[in-house]
Amino acid sequence: MPRPTSYAEPFPHPSGATPPQIPAQFVPNHVAIVMDGNGRWANARGLSRIEGHKEGEKSLLDVVAGAVQIGVKHVSAYAFSTENWKRSPEEVRFLLGFNRDVIRRRRDEMSSWGVRIRWAGRRPKLWGSVVDELQTAEEMTKDNDRCTLTMCVNYGGRAEIADAAAAIARDAVAGKVNPARITEKTIQKYLDEPDLPDVDLFLRSSGEQRTSNFMIWQAAYAEMVFLPEPWPDVDRRHLWRAVEEFARRDRRYGGAVDAPTA
What we know:
Helix content is about 40%, strand content about 15%. It is α/β, with parallel strands linked by helices. The radius of gyration is 19 Å and the shape is globular.
C-alpha cells in the first residue's frame, strides 16, 4: 500500500504518561528486546505458561507504541529463537501459531502508526502459515518509514552468522567472492537483514543479564539495560526509562567524565 501523507498517533498510555523530552540525537536508533519472563509471570499467578505469552502480546504492542512516540527508528523483538524448539511440543505449537496470529491481529494498527514490519530468521522448520503471515505483513507495510519492527522468528545470532559464512563460502567457490578480501562489511551483507543498523540499546526483561544468542553481531557495542520485571509487566514507560538511561550514558548528553587515574 502507498505511504500515507501522515500517520496516526499510537493510543495513549492508560496512565497518561508521555515520553521524556530527549534530543533526537540521543535517542537510540535501534533497540533490541529480549522479551523474557512470560512463563515465570504465569507460574507466579498459578497460570499456564501459555497465558503468560498471551499477556506479553499487550506489552509488545505498548512498547512499539512507545518507540514510535519517543522516536526510536528500529525495534527488534526476539519472538521465537532457534533454541525454542527444545521446549515442549505443546508450547512450540502455541508459540508458532501465536506469533503468526499476533502479526495478523496487530499489523493494521501498527501500520497506521507508520510501522514497517520485517522478519529475520531461518525458514527451514518454520510453519508455512507463519512464513506467509510474516511475508504478507512485510509487503503490506514496506512503504512505512516511521519505525521498523523486526520480528525475529526462528532466529539465533550464531545461526545467522553460520548461515552467512555458508553463503560466503558458496559464493567463494563460485568465484563471486575473493576469500582474501572478506571483511566485516562482507559478512554484514550476508546477514538476514543486511541493512539493519547496529543495536544501540539492548533491553532484556525479567532480571536475567545475558544476551541469549540475540543479535550478537549487531549488538557488539550496544548499551545493556536489564529490567527486573517479567515481560508481561513491561510497558512503554520501561522503554522510556531505558532510553533515558541510554542518553545519560552518552558522554555528549550526560556530561560523564572518566574517573581520574591514580
